[in-house]
Amino acid sequence: MSATQPGLSLVILRNVPLFSGLDDHELEKLAKLAGRKRVERAATVVRAGDATDSLYVLISGRAKVTNTDEEGREIILAWLGPGEFFGEMGLIDGSPRSANVVAAETCELLFLDKSSLQQCMQENFQVAMKLMKILVLRLREADRKIESLALLDVYGRVARLLLDMSELVEGNRVVKKKMSKQDMAKMIGASREMVSKVMRDLELSGYIRIENDLVVIPGAA
Following CA atoms 183, 80, 59, 34 in sequence, which dihedral angle do they give, to the nearest 10 degrees? Predict the structure, then answer.
């Protein structure tokens, strides 16, 4: 864990949606308080139950937010990519970390301690508002996942996951983020074998295509 150059932090913070409303002077003040760290693949960045001390911003790489069920099996709650942040909830309510965040590949991270973030929100109402909006969005996404688990069968859950993870590319929806069948199973509460069967059935039925290891959903604009 180390400090980073304010100029570099400024560039990074400017591209983080949470801080996009700040001017360069405000970003410079925040950048001077930021630190930077690198974590290797499979390393745990934060652990459920630990005290919350910092907000983390992902500069590069991918990370997964996980928890475990009563039998100790891993559940994937979300995937994070560059520009996304985590660790904010405990900084607001003072509670311990609610989930694990694990590096899915080598990651570069920027971090701000609790007092720096709270000062930023007190001085910049738009940051506090944007944080609330992002938290509401994440709550809505959590509600959708709960609804899927309660109301949809495995076919429906796989289909919704693919649509949620996809991007619009030339009239088709494309899942650019590579996910193993095991990871998909951990996200929707199913077995890897069942997910593999559903993916085969969807492909044979023409609902999806596999092109260069990417999942294409034809005509689902």
Answer: -130
If asked whether residues 16 and 122 sit together in one domain, one would say yes
Residue 3 has pLDDT above 50, yes or no: no
- CATH number of the domain encompassing residue 187: 1.10.10.10
Question: Edge-to-edge strand order for the sheet containing 35-39?
Answer: 2-3, 35-39, 107-113, 54-60, 85-86
- Closest Cα to residue 109, out of 76, 78, 82, 77? 82
Q: Considering the entire predicted model, what is its pTM?
A: 0.76
Residue 199 half-sphere exposure toward CB, CA atoms < 13 A? 20
Find all residues with CB under 8 Å of 88, minimum gap 6, and list them.
55, 117, 131, 135
What CATH number is attached to the domain comprising 135? 2.60.120.10
Cα distance between residue 84 and residue 8, in whole Å? 17
